[in-house]
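hey so i finaly got around to running the thing on Amino acid transporter transmembrane domain-containing protein from Exophiala dermatitidis. pasting the sequence first so u can double check i didnt mess up the copy paste, my clipboard has been acting weird all day
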Amino acid sequence: MVPAAVLLLSQNPSACGEQRSWLLLIDSPNTSSRYLHFAKGCLCLSFSTPFLQPPSTMVFDSPSSASWRRGIMSQSIASYFNKKPAEEKTTNTVINEASLGTPTSDMPENAVLGNNTTSDQEKKDGDEQQLDPMTSRIEGGVEYKSMVWWQAGMVMVAETISLGILSLPRAMATLGLVPGLILLVFLGAMASYSGYVIGQFKVRYPHIHSMGCAGEVLFGRWGGEILGWGQFLFYVFVMGSHILTFSIMMNAVTDHGACTILWMVVGTILSLIFTLPRTLKNLSYYSVASFISIIGAVLITMIGVSITKPGLRLVDGHETLSVRLWPQAGLTFHAGFLAVANMVFAYAGHVAFFTFISELKNPRDFPKALAFLQCSDISMYIITAVVVYYYAGDQVASPALDSASRVVKKVAYGIAIPTIVIAGVVNGHVGVKYLYVRMLRNHSEDLMHQKTWKSYSIWVAMCTASWLGAWVIAEAVPVFSDLLGLTSALFASWFTLGLSGMFWMKMNLMQQGRWWKVVPRGRWSFGKSLLLLVNMLNITVGAILCVVGLYASIYSMVQNGATNKPFSCANNAG
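ok and heres what it spat out for the 3d tokens, dont ask me to read them lol
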């Protein structure tokens, strides 16, 4: 018997591990059975199930045939992967629902409107485990999915909050107390929401492990390549900046007791050693020390400036602190934008969120870790920026440690050693993990989870090459600081704000895999419309920060020229 219609779909293997398969659906109006043949790699499975009774008359015209096959395929695939019989439904109902864009029983309204819960939670925990690349397929292998929520929260704090917090008082001095406080709270709220959307997106697409995988879901393979390598490049520059900060700290503590190149080599070796554990759970214990370290350094700085009061001025014979509620007179656009950008990038830890969620025992615990991070960074940023600016005044330095006395500066830098090292280590670990997973996730023997010399040697080699590259860039590039700013403007603005808005739209404005087929207006609530505006704002702010940030970075390169000499022993602590 010749089938009335045959639908064949094919996809190529993906570096991000999406379910790539061949699907063959044979429609025949003369039998009550529909046959779905599913082939995955070399494993071939087939089954026949009387999903639907054939209609008494079936005319295979273009609309009804396509709609009927689409409905059949949706039920068939759902039945196979959910391991339950598909619900009986008349063919006419399937045709009507598919033609009108109405979700079938296996594609409920919540799936279209972006709610992460479908009938039977859309993605069962077991299915998520199978799709997530961090789930081991071998017994006794490396257990990456081992963090509980507070450990993930500690790693997120270590990655996000570092000495960059001490640049916020300078930003507050530029913008004034009122605009500065409003911006810190507003940007913190935006960062919290965008982080929550990233968590939703991960639950919806469990195979995602990095921004590269997310880019592939949004824009296809080229989008995945651009975002994936952009993420890695961003991490390399962040790693280099931590090596540079380590050398500045050592020069400050030791009064330039050795060549700066030596300090940078020491910082690179230390960072490499702490990056060698393959799981984030091990880094979570270091992250506790990093959290205590940054709190101690900030407290020492605040106490130091409150005693010396470098912002004290004589006005009409009276001593007064030079604190302003509003921006400086004659504030230039360039200076104002840099102040706002410092505040935005203080929240820019989102690039690593997919990796953190992938190593949680239960990915649905991510909102707890996110709440821990956001409560910590928003409160610390506000307190530090206000207190240090209040006592240091308009002339507060960036970092604020330079406004404290020489002794306080040394003590604070000494206490900050763990956070300088560990914050760079967390970023380096996530950057290397992207390469590691990309290379090994589709390995036939699940090499990534093996406890063998070969699998660990690959990890060590990747860590060594990445830290060596970061050291060379930080040492050899004369305009490294400006390049770091350019990289942050190009990627961090999108990773933190812009892409999360696109993730929300992907989950909410798409039907049947097409951007242009949006949810019918009648099924939109006021809340959904409001969220659409919020996410459009995220995309807009991300785009503005990217464009203006690129301009500011290039302008700074042109104006400042080379800011340091390659491989120089000179004191860089100021």
